[in-house]
Amino acid sequence: MSDTGEQGHQTSSADVIRAPAGFGTALVVLVGLVVGGGIYLAVVRGDALFLDLAALSGLLFCF
């Protein structure tokens, strides 16, 4: 069989759909910002966040 796909099941490497060139970089930057923001909040507002989470868990789980 050839790469053109006589039965229509085979694809060549030219048929693969790829994301735009900057998409991977943008995704890494976005994830980095989210993780960095979470670390920043944990460092700066850590105690308050843990108190808020404790109060919220007390409201959600009544035992």
Overall mean pLDDT stands at 79
Q: What portion of the residues fall into strands of 2 or more residues?
A: under 5%
Let me know the largest β-sheet: none
Count of helical stretches: 2
CA-based shape: elongated
Structural class: mainly alpha
Instruction: Spell the H/E element sequence.
Output: HH
Q: Tell how many strands the DSSP assignment holds.
A: 0
End-to-end distance, in Å? 66 Å
Share of helical residues: 55-70%
Q: How many whole angstroms does the radius of gyration measure?
A: 24 Å
Please, what is the oligomeric state? single chain
Low-confidence stretches: none
Please describe the structure with a list of short key phrases separated by commas or semicolons.
2 helices, mainly alpha, 63 residues, 59% helix
